[in-house]
What does this fold into?
Amino acid sequence: MDAIVAEGLEKRYGDVQALDGVSFRVRAGEVFGLLGPNGAGKSTTVKVLTTLTTPNGGRAEVAGHDVVREPDAVRRSIGYVPQSSGVDRDATGRENLMLQGRVQGMSGHRLRDRVDRLLELLGIADAADRVVRGYSGGMKRRLDVGLGVVHGPQVLFLDEPTTGLDPEARSAMWQELAVLAREELLTILLTTHYLEEADALTNRLAIVRASASSRS
It folds into this structure.
């Protein structure tokens, strides 16, 4: 089953052709890297797939829903982590996740249990009740990922998820994403400048899955 379908996507901004017939498919459970330099149309593609902008041509489906005809259904099915952080730096990590969960219609024990689980999965449980302003760059970015998946989406979009992180924080990010993909049964589409980053996540995911199989 395809979690993402893009067929002949076109997008223009005035005289600028940002997308010119982009086509690809991502099967459910896959990690898909969208690679290219600045200006290649990566972020524009993500904006079309997440219903933040409307294509001028072509079609796209996410989680079985047409991005133009069924935008609300698409939004309920996805998580989106943009390049710019969306965390509230004056709130704690737990408070950020709780607020995002409530925005997504969650409450009570379901929300509290979900937040506790994500804090553990993302490796920030020890800092859960500290104000985010004191977090490292890598911790803030992992919290951004938590905000994107708190509601349990089928598909997660990551737009340049390691921008501004040092090599150690990047490595930690890929490790956490691999575990999250396996634990959450997520389809992940990520944009990046670097082939090695897409390879890193794919390889880590394969290692995690192999390790899980060996224990079963």
